[in-house]
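Let us work through a complete example step by step.
Step 1: write down the sequence.
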Amino acid sequence: MGRHPKYLQPEDVPEEYRDLLDYDSQRLLVRYGKSALYINAKCADCDKKRILQVYSVRKKLKVGKFTGFCKKCMVGEKGSYYKKGWWQGNKGYIFRSIGAYKEYEDIIKPMAPKGGVIMEHRAIMAIHLGRSLDSRELVRHLNGNKTDNRIENLAVGTHADNSKDHHDTYLELLALRKDYEFVAEKVAIINEELGGVEKLLGETRDHVSGINGELKWIRYVIIGTFLAAITDLLLGFLSG
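Step 2: predict the structure and record it as tokens.
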């Protein structure tokens, strides 16, 4: 039997967000091919009704990232995602509300006609150039770091330039992989040779040990022979 779902309780939620959730509405739903516990909620700003996954709500509450706003309100002046005014998208780029660039509204607004959200690196480049960017103009990060939006790290290019950057990066990674494989092969050869040397040293130690044993036996024979000769001389002298 599967585990019983852990329902969200009012006492689990900070007081400022408590009234935004309908705790009696919690139920199991199959979405995206998976069964999970969901709860009805309303936006703290526009009262829009939505369905949230209880696990996601718990996780965001735990790390202080639950805002109570819907997506539309989160990027507005009142919401400002995570109450910071910016957030990082799934592909690593930094996004901001166009409200952050009020003094450059004539440049920024034509670049963000939907929802009032814009990628920070595009906004910085447009402000630097003093004009709006065409949708075909891409802003590239020269060092590959998508969060490094310093103007000296940005350059305007085309899709072809972007593809070339990705291709060059791929070639660099391929070269590094070949270097790694070459080094790994050499290390394997060295390890094999060291194993052969260790085996030879072991055989040498055994051989030396055998020689020492033979020398010890020869020493005993010589001493025995010498003692026997002395004994014969003494006996001859005494009997004479």
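Step 3: interpret the result. Strands lie at 21-31, 34-42, 49-53, 86-88, 94-97, 117-119, 138-141, 154-157.
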